[in-house]
Amino acid sequence: MRRLNNEYANAEWDVETNMTNETETKHVQMSIKASRSMKEIAFKAREQQKLHYLRKDTRRRLRLMAQFSDPTDRNVLEQLEKTRSALENIYAAGTLQKDGKVYNMEPELTKLMQEERDPDVLNWAWKGWRNETGKQMKTLYAEMVKLLNLGAVENEFSDYVDAWKKSQFDDTPELLQMCETLWKEVSPLYKRLHAFVRMRLKDYYTEHYPNYKFPTDGTIPAHLLDKDVIERATASDVHLRDARL
Ligand SMILES: *[C@@H]1O[C@H](CO)[C@@H](O)[C@H](O)[C@H]1NC(C)=O
Questions:
Q1: Residue 222's pLDDT band (cuts 50, 70, 90)
Q2: How many angstroms separate the alpha carbon of residue 18 from the centre of ligand 1?
Q3: What is the mean pLDDT of residues 62-86?
Q4: Residue of the nearest CA to atom 14 in ligand 1?
Q5: pTM of the prediction?
Q6: Cβ-contact 228, 110 below 8 angstroms
Q7: How would you classify this enzyme at the top EC level (predicted)?
Q8: Which domain holds residue 130?
Q9: Which atom of ligand 1 is nearest to the CA of 18?
């Protein structure tokens, strides 16, 4: 198992650092091999789970090992892994062009989204990237979900969402209720934070880009504050650097 993990990690590294047809095929093959091996373990664990004298702790471990929702049919599994791989490929290989310059996601577009302030340029990058990758992904993504659901149902889950929830949150039937409660707890802070960021951005754009119309409906345009910026906001974003909440 450890050797297989190691081989799989190597194949993953190869495809992520050097995407070629060859590394991609190898990665797909390794994913299938890993899945077959996980399946064996899961099925053994399912058998063992039926024993009635298990300790609670043992039962829990077996339940975790029994987690498996990949399609059983090898061809369907291969189709799933190929679809996943194709999706990653679109994301990794997507580029934008402007004035003869090529923008890859890394590092050019990420850097631009971090440093650029001109709302038109940011909008070009944000929309362009989504059109370039998202549109191509749409059909494949739906195909992937279909195959994931198929595998989940074969493994006696109601669908992939059900399988995913059970794999991430073992024995937590009250999960949705917990999320509701957590959200209620953090949402007042989230709303204040959102309002604060919105105010800062609005001040900034009113001052520096007087022609730009900042929305008045309480939203923040995604291209002015993309996910990357939010993640780094506390440390580096110019609008938030001197935030005092
Ligand atoms: C990239 O992968 C190919 C195989 O498709 C290999 O021949 C080549 O040496 C690899 N390049 C690097 C830099 O690892």
A1: confident
A2: 6
A3: 95
A4: 18
A5: 0.81
A6: yes
A7: hydrolase
A8: 71-169
A9: 1
